[in-house]
Design brief:
Length: 326
């Protein structure tokens, strides 16, 4: 993947606020002093974090000092992956009232997943500074933060659209719960070593009926997470597709399958299940299942926007994180 200075690589496009000149997304690199007076692509960033420790606090304090010098007003909030809908809504309403136009996530991929769930309906792009471990989504290191952040704020960046999933749990004709997932939706046994039995339908048509420890429905973003460890393929991030991966299935004839995201998926726990089961979204939100429950999974119309530094290369990320060499 090649890139010219100030332009995004193929399949990636700069994010420009509505009504702003397109030139804002093509700001050439210049010394910080020269760039200070340039129009900002983002004026109201919010710092978002989960961990409450010295590392996160120290970085947040530096950002609160530097961002106003660059012309930004700084908001922020602590988030928790295990929050319910009511707590998520309070943070969402607060950030919307502040006019937040960029979320700066301080943490790892788990923190970003929680933030994505909370802010998905606000269409706020996210930039993540990696204070976690593997960091497939959080790709800016603390050491480079204050070098790349000024150019990103002024429009020199790459933007990716990432597929999000709407998830509903149906029981007896009623919707018992709903969630949003960026990585995956996992149906799995809960209280026993015995397998569960379930049916999967795609676009209303029966795909398969199987006995297994469970099943993962992953987005391209989640294809490098739980689905990958269960034997699924890696999907390029810009695909509108889902990968369906069984977990320790009874028959080896059922293999991982890639489906277009336009058709909704439905998974039903059948009467032959001997174990309890749960559905878990992004490893953070969990709902118990009963016999006959149906989990409906649809691709959201509006994707999540992730912001990366100029020069971002997904293949380079894979080589680095998965130790492919080269």
């Amino acid at each position: 993947m090649t890139e010219r200075s100030g332009s995004p690589p193929p399949n990636l496009s700069p994010v420009v606020p509505a009504g702003a000149p397109a030139a804002r997304a093509r700001v050439a690199r210049a010394p910080l002093a020269a760039r200070t007076a340039m129009p900002l692509a983002f004026r109201q960033p919010a710092l978002l974090w989960h961990r409450d420790d010295a590392v996160v606090s120290g970085l947040a304090d530096r950002l609160r000092a530097v961002l106003p010098e660059l012309g930004c007003r700084v908001g922020g909030a602590q988030v928790r992956p295990d929050w319910g809908a009511a707590a998520d809504a309070l943070v969402r309403e607060r950030l919307a009232a502040e006019g937040t136009d960029l979320g700066i996530v301080l943490g790892g991929d788990g923190t970003l997943l929680a933030v994505a769930r909370i802010l998905a309906t606000l269409d706020i792009p996210l930039l993540c500074i990696n204070l976690g471990r593997l960091g497939f989504l959080a790709d800016i290191s603390p050491a480079e933060t204050f070098d790349v952040l000024p150019t990103i704020l002024r429009g020199e960046f790459c933007a990716e659209e990432r597929l999000l999933l709407d998830v509903e749990l149906h029981r007896g004709g009623q919707v018992l719960g709903a969630a949003i997932a960026l990585n995956e939706v996992a149906l799995h046994k809960w209280d026993s070593l015995k397998m569960i039995e379930f049916e999967t339908r795609a676009g209303g048509r029966l795909l398969n009926r199987q006995r297994a420890d469970g099943q993962i429905v992953a987005t391209p973003t989640g294809s490098t997470a739980y689905a990958l460890s269960a034997g699924g393929p890696i999907l390029y991030p810009d695909l509108r597709a889902l990968v369906v991966v069984p977990i320790c299935q009874h028959t080896m004839a059922i293999r991982p399958m890639v489906l277009g995201a336009a058709q909704p998926l439905e998974i039903e726990l059948t009467n032959d299940s001997w174990s309890k089961a749960r559905v878990v979204c992004d490893g953070q939100q969990s709902l118990p299942l009963e016999i006959g429950d149906r989990v409906l999974i649809r691709a959201r119309e509006r994707p999540l926007c992730l912001i990366h530094p100029a020069g971002y290369d997904y293949f380079d990320l894979l080589r680095t994180k998965l130790h492919w060499g080269g």
